[in-house]
Structures are given as C-alpha cells and as structure tokens.
C-alpha cells in the first residue's frame, strides 16, 4: 500500500512534514521527517556517498562522471568524466564507487570505480562487447579532480541487464564487488543460460578468463589481485567470495564485520542476506527460501525450441510451454544459505497479474527491487532505529528499514519509509545520523501514489534529502 506522498516547492526548497509508515512496534512517530530536493537534472545518479570532505560523492551512470555535491547548497562540481564508459538504457554505465578509508588523511587519496565498457570498440560488425572493469583513481584535493587511472581488473563479463555493480572496502582492507547474472533466462535474454552456479577452472583463473564471474560477489586486494585467504571453491581459489546470486545491488558491513547484501528477486523473494566466504545463495534453483512457494526454475535456455517460444515470467505450468524444463526448489539438493528475509514470499496460487498496474502488472508484484543497503548505527539519533539496515527500492519508491536482532544475524521487523513516486537507487547517511540523501533514477517505471504503475517520476535524476526532527519542523 502506498503511503502519504511528500511534496516540495522546488523554487523555494520549502521543507514539509513527511509521515513514516508504522509497521513495527518501535517505529518513529508520524511526521518526524521533512523532505526536499537538493539537486535535480543528474544523468542517472547511481552511487551517493558521504565523503571525508563533507561533500556528497556521486557517480552518474549515464553521465559517465563522478561529481561532488555540496549537501547544503546543492552546488555540483565535476571530478571526473570517463569517455570509454559504455551506457545503455538502465543497466550499463558508471556504477559503483568506493572511497579509500584514508582519503584526505594520508597519501592514499584513492577512489575506486566500477564501470562497463566495450571491449571491441570500432569493431566492423558494429556490435558492442560489454565488459566491466574496476579502476583506481587518485584524488587531487587542490584541483578537486580524479586522475592517474590504474586498472585493477578488466574483462569481467557484462550485459544489458543485471550487472550488479556495488563496490565496498571492507574492514579487512579488501575490495568487494557485486556482479549480476545479466538477466539471463528472461525478457530478451531468455535463451541465454544462467551462469550464477558456474565456477571457474584453474586454467581460466591462470589465464585471467573471468567468464564464470556472473552472479557472484568478488573479493580482491586493493591492487586487484586474488587474496591468499579467499575461499577455495570446488578446488579453485579465485576472486569469487560467494556465488548463486541473481542481481546483488547492495552490500554493507556491520560494525562487527558482518557483510549484509540485498538482491533482486524475480516475481517475489527479493533477499536480504549475510554473505560468508564460499557460500552458495541458490539462484536460479532457489528464490528466497527452499519452500516450493510460487517459484520453480524454468530453464528456457535448455528448451530445444527456445528461439521459437514466446517467453513469460509466470511460473504456472499451464502457461509455460511443455518443452521448457521445470525444477522445483526442493528437487535441488545442494547446500545453500537461506536469506535473513525476503520481500516478499507468497503462497502458490498468488495472482501475479495484478490489474491495478494494467499492462505494467510486473510493478505490482511482491518483489520491490532493492538497489542498495546501508547500516544505521546503534548510537544513531533516531529512537528505535539503532542496529537497522536501510534498503532503497526501485519498484516501490521507498526505503525499507530492517531492524536487526541483537546478534545482527536476524531481522526482527520491518518499516517502510520515505515513500515517493520515484525509483530509489542509493542512499547515504549524513554524519549527524539523522539526514538521509537518496539518489533517484532519471527514468523508468515505479508504483504510483495509488498503488498502480507509472513511468512519470516525481523527481527524476535527483538527490532527495530527508531529515529527522522530533518536533516535525526539520530543525
């Protein structure tokens, strides 16, 4: 259900009260947040991070640039434009960014970026060969620009869908990088096999053939090399930290080093996971829990007549062609790690063609497309929020707050906050722990204020600001 929608007078940047959904016992009372637009007109803001210079650092996916934005005025400064970034409608471009923990504190003025590129530019067949790379740049704090690129890893397979793309430096000093499975087995890629369970051979690793890295979370040293303590999976040590992922778009470390992740489901069962070295997370054989509820793996790519079939993302045996192999979740016997929580598991017989969304009925499905995750600290300023995960969502235009159990290994309850008619791509928490900066997609489809679907976003390509104030004034 959609909640009260906030409004902003753009010309005067007036702050207005915003009501928070109360779905848990310790939710913040109504009308304790205010909201405004800090800046608009960004070309697909994808990552927003609070920097040590008290500026917001933003990657613009389609703009191919890193920008620094003053959180008080919205003034924007370009730090870098990367001409060879390959951009498509939604999934390719300049994606993740990680700031070195010692940025502006020592000589390690490094910023790490992940982006897609064409591995065969100028090829006579005029077809892109999309790949991904991670590059380290050095920040010049006098000119406020990034330069001296150092390529850490390149040639990672990329696609026109589900590229993952989040970067995070862990407390162990390693760089973590999420990769999706390129939307295989669906839409225009429905005859392509899902490789989320495929693992590299030693020959491939030795030859720097990263083709098996689809649907994985990687862990690398800050020079791009494979750490000696990375997990050995099926006898091979590579960059792979975990596998069996669909589209992992958010990772964050808790204060004790626990690595949390959010991941896109299909029709249902978006996941909140804890990632542990060498673990398998089940995709495509399992979505969410291994419960045989409203999901079975239909392997379209294995159908002998796949190219002649009309694809559907429904999992009703009466709708899917008989030549498409079907496998129930419980038919897969491998060991895997179940999620802490799903958004949302539904029973068999659920109607996935909700008429409220018309022809865009997929927007009304139980999945909400979590696109990033942050950790709200135990000593934060908002009562009841300490020790929570905050996940932005694309379909639902909202932030989900997951209250963790005391040990951080479970989820106690959920709140849904900051609802607007937008696609939320990423979130940064200000140092006061009561101000939240949310990057919105420049376009796309989301739920509207009535619970239907729309392609008209309220604040496309923007950074929105929500601020906590117990008296509701924004002060």
Describe this structure in words.
The protein is mainly β. It has a single domain, classed as Neuraminidase, CATH 2.120.10.30. Helix content is 1%, strand content 35%. It has one helix and 31 strands. It has one helix at residues 202-206, and strands at residues 16-18, 33-39, 45-50, 56-60, 65-69, 76-81, 94-99, 110-118, 130-140, 145-157, 167-169, 175-178, 216-220, 232-233, 236-237, 240-243, 248-253, 259-263, 270-275, 296-298, 326-328, 341-343, 370-376, 388-393, 399-404, 411-417, 424-429, 435-440, 446-447, 453-454, 463-468. The strands form nine sheets. A five-stranded antiparallel beta sheet has the order 1-2-31-28-27, with no helix packed on it. A four-stranded antiparallel beta sheet has the order 3-4-5-6, with no helix packed on it. Strand 11 (167-169) and strand 12 form a beta hairpin. The radius of gyration is 21 Å and the shape is globular. It starts with 15 loop residues before the first strand and ends in a 7-residue tail after the last strand. Residues 1-25 have low confidence and may be disordered.
CATH topology: Neuraminidase
What is the strand content?
A: 25-35%
State the helix count.
1
Q: Give the CATH superfamily.
A: TolB, C-terminal domain
CATH class: Mainly Beta
Rg computed from alpha carbons, rounded to a whole number of angstroms: 21 Å
Count of individual beta strands: 31
Structural class category: mainly beta
